[in-house]
Amino acid sequence: DFLCISLANGFIQLRYNLGDKTVILQALQQVHTEGNTWHTLRAGRVGNEGYLDLDGHNVTQEAAAGMSALDTHTDFFLGGVSSLNLVNSMATENEPMGFSGCIREVLINGRELKLTASDARDGANVGDCDGTACGYTVCKNNGTCRVENAGFSCSCPQQWVGSTCEQSVYCSQSRCGSQALCVPQPQLFSYICVCALGWSGKYCDNKITFLTAKFIGNSYIKYTDPQYRKRDLQHSRISLNFTSNQTEGLVFWMGKAEDEDNDFLALGIANGTLKIVVNLGERISVPLTYSKYSICCGRWHAVTIVQNQTCIKVYLDEDLILFEDIDPQRKYTALNYGGICYFGGFEIGKEVNTVTTGLFQQGFIGRIKDVVLFQDSKKIQLMKAEGYNVYNGDDGS
């Protein structure tokens, strides 16, 4: 499988192969190869339907029957490759050996790549395209960059300070404690502190412990499973107790929160009822719902989800409520969740609705306890994981 974007005879092309055939899309207009004209390019695919947009002019390849997932496990190359032996011959047919020009602001699945020597894994024959110390987006938050003898300086908008305008004026002298995040509140001419896991209080300066995690919105816990490499991923299991304060929310997401092709197992609340979603490969997300009665609000519920290859069992308060074979063909049978489990939501800046592509609408508000993975004898100690905006729910308040 491969996906590549190239310049051939003055035209931008998108080429991709999902395992069955190669698709080629070509922009309608040529790019300017002289002067300093910058072009905006957006390209990608939804399933096996490709799209290519150059400066607002869109080309779409209608989807046809066939594979719908991009299965690649190689490095990401920009501008060229270290060896053509690494590249499918169909991806480089009738193309130059490498790109000559400037590239900036590269986003892959919504995440910007840092094109610096310290962030890239490797590279060769790449220089500074801007030619000055200012470069691209050196000054944050719409600051203005000025070249100086010793480098550069930033002229910051009214509400931002710092050498690169990176800090809100309201947070420049905040009292937020250890590992806390300062969130500016311009309308109040003030700020609030968002506490790291294990801390509470107005300034996040009170150390806390708990067994029951309380989620208040914009909260998350990220747990990394230390036994992941020893797990039998064809037979996964997770159980927990939870009580919700709202009719919508993501309770847990077992899998990475990075791109569309990662496997995951998720539990949440939609319209007041239980919703389970499973993806074992090719982004085939299978939602399972149980709507016999509402699970909101205030009552504790025990949920256990068991994955036996493509068979999914769900127990609610010890009763078997769902038993589904999501793929009788057994094409994908393992839950390759990467050893990552999220509870209540995702990292700050990652919207639940966006990461889950609309499967769940918002983060969880309520309490979670007694989380057990697989057949482990011990419960997960949630407060020893990573997270923010999560508090002590042991007292039930």
Automatic annotation (TrEMBL):
Question: Could you tell me the Gene Ontology terms of the biological process aspect for this record?
Answer: developmental growth
Q: Which Pfam families match?
A: Laminin_G_2
- Which UniProt key words apply to this protein? Calcium, Disulfide bond, EGF-like domain, Glycoprotein, Repeat, Signal
The keyword Transcription regulation appears for this protein = no
Q: Which residues form the EGF-like domain?
A: 130-166, 167-205
Q: What is this protein called?
A: EYS protein
Q: Which cysteines are joined by disulfide bonds?
A: 102-129, 156-165, 176-193, 195-204
Which InterPro entries does this entry report, sorted A to Z? Answer: ConA-like_dom_sf, EGF, Laminin_G, Neurexin-related_CASP
**Where in the numbering of this chain does the Laminin G domain appear?**
1-129, 210-397
Family annotation (PANTHER family): EYS PROTEIN, PIKACHURIN-LIKE PROTEIN
What organism is the protein native to? Nothoprocta pentlandii
Classification lineage: Eukaryota, Metazoa, Chordata, Craniata, Vertebrata
Q: Does the keyword Zinc-finger apply?
A: no
